[in-house]
């Protein structure tokens, strides 16, 4: 099948950038991204391309090039499904917050809704592609729904997980390490795989396009995220031992990273990993393992989350202990709220949990993040339901100027590794603070020697 029209359901952090790059690289294919969220679609269509709802370096330019040419954003889900030969499902698959599997399993209600809508609308054969991260064997459920339409339409289900990381999404999409496509071993399944391979082959070298069976593809995505998160929890576990022994975790990471079998990436000790994927996907993996009775497998992976929770808690505890065991009524400035630099995404950001702990100790939190709004900061805290909205408003204030956020504070906590933090006039910041002036660097970002020379009491992670 030659693909000329693609539809993507879900205009989020994955659907938006991925489809923008497909449209840019395949001008002969019409790509329509649809979403139920009218506000989000309006933002994608904003005349000023800098107002698109997702901040990613380089994304505005890609959207500007393709939008209106062969890239469209719309709320008309049915029309886009009807017209497309190939439909990506890129909706959210959060951890369940209710019922069986609450707090562990992936919530597949949005996926099922998409499948039912496709089944209802489709009048000709379609390839349906799982772009969302899904539990292994989800394609079976989607196929069951699609195969019971009774209107003779044939569907092929492919798994094509996305490996982009936020903050580098455009570069990751332009130069992926690999593209993974899982499909049926039948001739129809292989034809569907080939159709999707042909789309990617417009810019991705074909020897990096991997094809597998559906189940391997689904499980590889959960596995990749589990391995990546495990490296962070491993180095973070050792950061605590470093603090006790006089070893420096940065030096340890460098020393082990030069072993080509270990590799140097993803060994940066931090206040703990965040983001919408790692925790959700590992919990999902743990849940799947348990559902097959594989308790040792489940326990093994669960430790990655336990260690990450410990690392976040350890950071807030260290702040309280260092500030003479009380932060009540003290102003603590947070540099950064996003879960990593170069994104406006705050989902599961360590900053949220550290702030929550400190507010429990009655601290006042002053937040500066170059890309996160005050509304988002409050919404993140409200979501935890630890206290009322008004109580959060009373304890947290956002600033659009980092110097104002730090003015009069007892301590600064670096929660995100934004490059601009290293360029500040730290002497000016020091002069405006209460003394002793503390810096808790949750990203080992700042220059310890420089700050200590100015007079700061500096504490990083794992050193
Ligand atoms: P997101 O929440 O940013 O976007 C999902 C969008 O889907 C939302 O805008 C929502 O309104 C829309 N939606 C939900 N149900 C819908 C329906 N029935 N019809 C139309 N629109 C609907 O989520 P995301 O971060 O883009 O993640 C999407 C999937 O990709 C998840 O499964 C996630 O695990 C996976 N993933 C995410 C990343 C990442 O970095 N964020 C990376 C790889 C994979
Ligand atoms: C992750 C995966 O990397 C990506 O392949 C997948 O598609 C989605 O999930 P993302 O969550 O966007 O991507 O960002 P990532 O760069 O993986 O960072 C996740 C968290 O780990 C961030 O909070 C980051 O600060 C933290 N991290 C990362 C560390 O603490 N140390 C590291 O060495 C690397």
From TrEMBL:
Catalysed reaction, written as an equation: UDP-alpha-D-glucose + 2 NAD(+) + H2O = UDP-alpha-D-glucuronate + 2 NADH + 3 H(+)
Occurrences of domain UDP-glucose/GDP-mannose dehydrogenase C-terminal (ranges): 333-448
Keywords assigned by UniProt, alphabetized: NAD, Oxidoreductase
Annotated metabolic or biological route of this protein: Nucleotide-sugar biosynthesis; UDP-alpha-D-glucuronate biosynthesis; UDP-alpha-D-glucuronate from UDP-alpha-D-glucose: step 1/1
EC number: 1.1.1.22
Class of enzymatic activity (EC top level): oxidoreductase
Classification via Pfam families: UDPG_MGDP_dh (PF00984), UDPG_MGDP_dh_C (PF03720), UDPG_MGDP_dh_N (PF03721)
Stated family: Belongs to the UDP-glucose/GDP-mannose dehydrogenase family.
Name this polypeptide is given: UDP-glucose 6-dehydrogenase
Species annotation: Flavobacterium ammonificans
